[in-house]
Amino acid sequence: MDVVVVGAGVIGAACADALSAAGLRVTVLDRGPLASGTSAAGEGNILVSDKEPGPELDLALSSLSRWPALVGDTDIEWDPKGGLVVATGDPAPLAHFAAVQREAGVDARWITPAEALEREPHLTTRVTAAVHYPQDAQVQPVLAAQALLSNVRRRGGVLRPGVTVVGLDARGVHTSEGVIACDHVVNACGPWSGEVSRALGAPIAIAPRRGMVLVTAPLPPTVHHKVYDADYVGAVASGDADLQTSTVVESTAAGTILIGSSRERVGFDESIRIRVLRELARKAVALFPSLADVPVMRAYGGFRPYAPDHLPVIGADPRVPGLWHATGHEGAGIGLAAATGALLAELLTGATPHLDPTPFRVDRPGVLECA
Amino acid sequence: MRVTIDGVPSQATPGQTVAGALLAAGRTSWRTTRVKSRPRGVFCGIGVCFDCLVTVNGVADVRACQRLLVDGDDIRTEGP
Amino acid sequence: MKVVVIGGGPAGLAAARAAAGAGADTVLVDSEPTLGGQFHRGDPQRVDPRVRHLANSTVWAVEGMRLHVRTGPADSPSRTGETLNADAVVLATGAHDRVVPFPGWDLPGVYTAGAAQALAKGQKIAIGHRVVVSGTGPFLLPVAESLKAVGAEVLRICDANTGLGWLGRPRAASPAKLAELLGYAVRLGAAWRPRTAVVAAHGEDRVNAVTVAKLNPDWTIRSQERVAVDAVCVGHGFTPRLELAVAAGCVLTDGFVQVDHTGATSVPGWYAAGEVTGIGGADLAAAEGEVAGAAAARGACPTKALAKVRSGRRFAAALADAHPIRPGWHTWLTDNTLICRCEEVTYKDLRAAVDLEASGTRTFKLTSRIGLGLCQGRTCARAAVDIATALSGDRRTFFTPADLQRRPIATPLRLAELASLPEEDL
Ligand SMILES: Cc1cc2nc3c(=O)[nH]c(=O)nc-3n(C[C@H](O)[C@H](O)[C@H](O)COP(=O)(O)OP(=O)(O)OC[C@H]3O[C@@H](n4cnc5c(N)ncnc54)[C@H](O)[C@@H]3O)c2cc1C
Ligand SMILES: Cc1cc2nc3c(=O)[nH]c(=O)nc-3n(C[C@H](O)[C@H](O)[C@H](O)COP(=O)(O)OP(=O)(O)OC[C@H]3O[C@@H](n4cnc5c(N)ncnc54)[C@H](O)[C@@H]3O)c2cc1C
Ligand code: FES
């Protein structure tokens, strides 16, 4: 069976990896260079800490356990550094959140502010409560996507950067380089999945949500975990168009510190907004006062792909036989990629899914749009 | 103007940059790289390459070729 | 009508003068303490008194016609902020040296030609006693002269090209330019070595010798010898400072800001002049500045300056043709030659990234770490992309000049500076 995966981001790469591992002949198309879309424009957190119990957490836990095996010995800067969520106000909401997470299988350890400061000596002393999440990890997303694509290539799959998909009919996928015949097509076009689904004749409601990240100059080790403010959780689940920021501070293998990230619904507008950068800076300095004099050398960002109910869309399109979608991972696509690829391959090959696919189905309310 | 460079008092003239003072004192490198500890001093001379970084009055990551010395400045470098 | 000119070199000075002369409320923002840019370093210039000059001031970001400025000592956390709302902007941010990497180019004692020049003119410092100047282009000559003026012995001036290409286009150069070049020939001719280059620098903690090679026309090596030195300076032309142009959305052509004859860019209200639009020396930059400043202020077109721009651009094009960068420099590199000085990325690392099919700027950077350090690729990006393109062979690549220059934060500022921007500045 021949499958064309459209989109060579981390999600397309994970789907192609799982499909080729299942023995299918896979071609991956991307209109640009491989792994250069949203997957090259964000951070690489593999998180369970920010997820409330439910289908996304299940997908995250499954993904977490799958990532290391998928990439084998390839260096993707995998760092099981753990997360630290701190509250600077009322500790009760964080305590409640951690308690329900624990019941759902998350390792969420309540620690004292003094223990938090021991783990993160530069943290503000205003911390009132903290939860340590030893399962949280980090990868370098481009290296991770490339590692998966290398697997595909090694199994004889074909990678074709610079090929734009423009349509689909009985003959196959129509592209800028001609028609490619195939049995199945997977739409993994990230924030562009909405427009690509329309071109394929099966529109789904995926929209972009912009995020910006600040990068500091390289520093001696200063921040050891992925540290964030307890208000982060509220921002992820919200649908407000207005700017939302919550501090997420973490260091990278190169010594830089990433300060992310904002959430705005501004379409695909790439222009920089100083107000957004200021909010990120403010919250980072509030969390780590000693970062005040550190130079910020870059701001970058991308567009998170999201569905109206903020859940990924993984499964068959009910309208066009042979068309599948794997998209809508919003701010968690890197983390969720490993399980997404596995689930899509299971559904496509008719194997038993390793977790319940119903919450992610394409024909749930709000996702299908009229053609 | 009087400044100190790595704790040693010295004279500076108005218009002199930190790099100018270091070079005049015979230093060609004063920083090492993060990974391989290779020496660095001035390269571009006009604020573009960020090779020449020093600590000025306790603040790190100041481009020595861009920063004019002022009376009382305390300059710290990373190395020889 | 408010015109903001960014950059106080020959182009920016002339632009500010012309804009003020045409009656515009004119602000000149320049990151240096004194005016004059690279050309007039050590010889501070003055600007028309009607112009408001913001010295020590850097435009670090742009949002539409709104410019964000920090003023104060370089890289100081105590700089103050200001936001300028412009009706028209003239971008005159100039250029910096382009350097082709070679083994040992990161040793202390190896400088850019511009650094040697800036230190000689601005700080009266010679970079060494025994110096070799290497690269390509006419700029090597004034640099050698300045080095001699501050007491250095210039052993060789190595130009990897013959520099004779433009002689075939005699109308390209004005008599004044020819006289200038002739003067250099008389004074520096003895050290001048066409079709040679420094292809390696040697030493432990600083340079003590270089390998000077005779080159073939494609810059591959014909023969080499070792020369004892205590400093080297290298320059292979210039790279325009484009971050603000890219942030404003200006279209680039051949790696420079695309302008029409008045200096107007593709973005309404944004003009550009000087070396951001093409490399042609201080006189051309000043003429371009005068035209663009007048156009930005909607004043009368200065026809004499416009004529100078036309002839100057012809000369610049001829010079550029005579001083190409030939691919043979790739053969100077070894596996361990650093390409990115900040992140210490080697030639071998770039090859590994190409093997992973990293074929666009973002992925190439994130795969190899090239250009992710403090200089944000200003020093190495052009060389790195040249190398990546060559190593990719027939494979498709997606590098664009604008991607290389995308730095929405044009100069670093401290986190607290950003955090404390007042509401009215947003
Ligand atoms: C600022 C920011 C921070 C983030 N931080 C994290 C984090 O810490 N952890 C985490 O897990 N996630 C994070 N994310 C989210 C994560 O980056 C995304 O969920 C994920 O990258 C989505 O991957 P994708 O493969 O679906 O999309 P993409 O990587 O965008 O891939 C889609 C591909 O489709 C291609 N394409 C589009 N149209 C066509 C066409 N017509 N024909 C062919 N190809 C086409 C595009 O070129 C692109 O390469 C962050 C996102 C942002 C913006
Ligand atoms: C280091 C160096 C030395 C040179 N020396 C000579 C020489 O001696 N003789 C010669 O003929 N040519 C020299 N040149 C070539 C020179 O660039 C041109 O001849 C001429 O100076 C170009 O004029 P310009 O106005 O376009 O740019 P420049 O003279 O480069 O002026 C640009 C100005 O803009 C400022 N600037 C840049 N970005 C910002 C920002 N974001 N905010 C505020 N200000 C900003 C810079 O600090 C600079 O003052 C030199 C070039 C370099 C790089
Ligand atoms: S020498 Fe390049 S920034 Fe100072």
From TrEMBL, chain A:
Give the domain of life.
Answer: Bacteria
- Output the Gene Ontology cellular-component terms: cytoplasm
Q: Which PANTHER family match?
A: FAD-DEPENDENT OXIDOREDUCTASE DOMAIN-CONTAINING PROTEIN 1, SARCOSINE DEHYDROGENASE-RELATED
Question: Source organism lineage?
Answer: Bacteria, Bacillati, Actinomycetota, Actinomycetes, Pseudonocardiales
Ranges where the FAD dependent oxidoreductase domain occurs: 2-347
User: What SUPFAM superfamilies does the record point to?
Assistant: FAD-linked reductases, C-terminal domain, FAD/NAD(P)-binding domain
Which of UniProt's keywords are assigned here?
A: Oxidoreductase
Q: Which Gene3D superfamilies match?
A: D-Amino Acid Oxidase, subunit A, domain 2, FAD/NAD(P)-binding domain
GO molecular function terms noted in the UniProt entry: oxidoreductase activity
Asked whether the UniProt record includes Oxidoreductase among its keywords, one would answer yes
Record's protein name: Glycine/D-amino acid oxidase
From TrEMBL, chain B:
Q: Which UniProt keywords apply?
A: Oxidoreductase
SUPFAM superfamilies named in the record: 2Fe-2S ferredoxin-like (SSF54292)
**Xref: Pfam families:** Fer2_4
Coiled-coil residues are none
Q: Answer whether the UniProt record assigns the keyword Oxidoreductase to this protein.
A: yes
> What molecular functions are annotated in GO for this chain?
iron-sulfur cluster binding; oxidoreductase activity
Keyword match Oxidoreductase: yes
| Entry-linked Gene3D superfamilies | 2Fe-2S iron-sulphur cluster binding domain, sarcosine oxidase, alpha subunit, N-terminal domain
Protein name as it appears in the record: 2Fe-2S iron-sulfur cluster binding domain-containing protein
Question: Which organism was this protein described from?
Answer: Actinokineospora terrae
From TrEMBL, chain C:
Enumerate the spans annotated as FAD/NAD(P)-binding domain: 1-289
Keyword NAD carried by entry: no
Q: Cite the Pfam families for this sequence.
A: Pyr_redox_2 (PF07992)
Among InterPro entries, the record links this protein to: BFD-like_2Fe2S-bd_dom_sf, FAD/NAD-bd_sf, FAD/NAD-binding_dom, Metab_Enz_Cyan_OpOx_G3PDH, Opine_Oxase_asu/HCN_bsu
- SUPFAM superfamilies assigned: FAD/NAD(P)-binding domain (SSF51905)
Q: Which UniProt keywords apply?
A: Oxidoreductase, Pyruvate
Kindly list the residue ranges recorded as spanning the membrane. Answer: none
Q: Which domain of life is it from?
A: Bacteria
* Keyword NAD among record annotations: no
UniProt GO MF annotations: oxidoreductase activity
Name of the protein: Pyruvate/2-oxoglutarate dehydrogenase complex, dihydrolipoamide dehydrogenase (E3) component
* Source taxonomy: Bacteria, Bacillati, Actinomycetota, Actinomycetes, Pseudonocardiales
